[in-house]
Amino acid sequence: MRAGYHGAGPGVMTPDGCAVELYSRLPVRAEPEIVAAAVPAGARILELGCGVGRVTHPLLERGFSVTAVDESQDMLDRVRGARTIRSRIEDLDLSETFGVVMLASFLVHAGDVEVRRALLRTCVRHLAPGGCVLIQREGGDWHTNLPREHVDPSGFTMRIVSAEPTGDGANTVYAEYEFPDATWTQTFLSRPLTKKQFEDALAEADLTVDKYLTEDHTWVRAGRAAQYSSGRP
After folding, report:
1. Of 138, 165, 173, 186, which has the most beta carbons under 10 Å away?
2. pTM of the model
3. Distance CA 174, CA 80 (A)
């Protein structure tokens, strides 16, 4: 596995410690509604880090055209109805652009700053003129309100147990997912970003915030800086 990342539990693990079977069980939350409210109907979406299609499938049902990208073929094998491409996000270059590029799953919080920069460059490289990038951020207390537990109505418990500093601004995060018949654990690197640090990271990639889509500022619509002549929201 990738250095700093580890997964344990039944089934296949991806290089960043994600369990394919676990992600196949996780329920759909508000993501499809947030996306649908933020972009034009029927838009072409490039979904970076699609996993097993947890969000892909509801977007397809809503009439969007989705190109789903993931580095794990085992994840992509669970995706149905979308164009799928196996690639590391950092390396992706399709020589085409999309009205919507989506970088969810807190990927903008990559522990390695150079990886984050490469992810955002990929977003910009595939962004059509006038298009938007939808980014999912961590909550403000994500690394400090610990340990915390969420008991999901579908019958499993998720725990974020700890977030230990690595010494360079990132944290090693340890999470548990407990189902009645199986338990998975995951360790990964995540770099906390204040609102200013996040916006500065976007600016470095020639992006700027158009709108924070949720009250907790965890979902953001951004675009090329040149698109916007007024100040940020």
Report:
1. 173
2. 0.95
3. 31
